[in-house]
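Question (not urgent): is this output format expected?
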Amino acid sequence: MEQPLYTAKEYATLLGISKSALLKMENDGRLPQPEVRNGARAYHPHDIPRYLQLLGMPPLVETKRRQIFLNFKGGTGKTSISAFYAYRLAQLGMQVLLIDLDPQGHLTQCLGINHESFTSTLYNVLIERLDIRDVIMDTTMNNLKLIPANLDLSPVELALTSMNAREQRLKKSLSAIQDSYDVIVMDASPSIGLLNLNGILASTELFVPVLADFLSYHGLKILFETLATIEEDFDFMLENIYIFLNNYNASHNICQRAKEALEKHYSSYLMKTLIRQDIKIAEAASMGMPIHQYAPKNRGSADLNAFIREVFPNLPIVF
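Got this back:
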């Protein structure tokens, strides 16, 4: 994963001003001088909030958000979408923390990070009481951090069983750092266990990716029954639940029928944005590259942009 940089024209467009206005304000001292690389101005994503403030524009986010991507059915493309979504949020200037809750570490791999490049996971935080700050990894972006996972996380379910307040340990650990990030994005394994329960209770929002087939559709019933039990047992309520269709192909009759069923029974949760079928998404994930880096002009990137606009409708930037 390479460090993304913007040209002057791209940065000005993002801020909703002309390139000439951007350069004039830099020359007047109203905006900071950017870095120069190979004789051209280069702008960093993490500086976007500062530019917005200097321009008298609203901040990127009004409230901090903690989000979990979860579906009890595997194979929905959950991990690649959550990784690409978090990367794009950081590319747009947000302070983002990604948390890999799956011992298989697929989210970690989606960012091109080697399993041997770290020695600590959430296991050390939840079980051994290691400070969560000590397991946060830097990435090539200043404003995108990661808590990685590998097979060392596997014993966490068994170890949590005998612990006090075992369901709330992640929420308690995150309380020390959550104000440092605009968005915390968690990717969970396709199961319900103590680690995923910790993830749900530490979240304010749930994203449920589904394929346009009836196996995914019927799996939602189990998920919502489980959520209802969690809400009752822990006096807990998610602020938002987003169901979204992934790998959608409008030319397939079964996709249209599944979409109609979701619209009928889950309309209050179903997102308008569809993530269309796109081989570039799978290619990007296999290479450990975000889709906006691998194929920024492709429909997968366009769909994720629309996805983010729907989740964050008040973003004061143009993309």
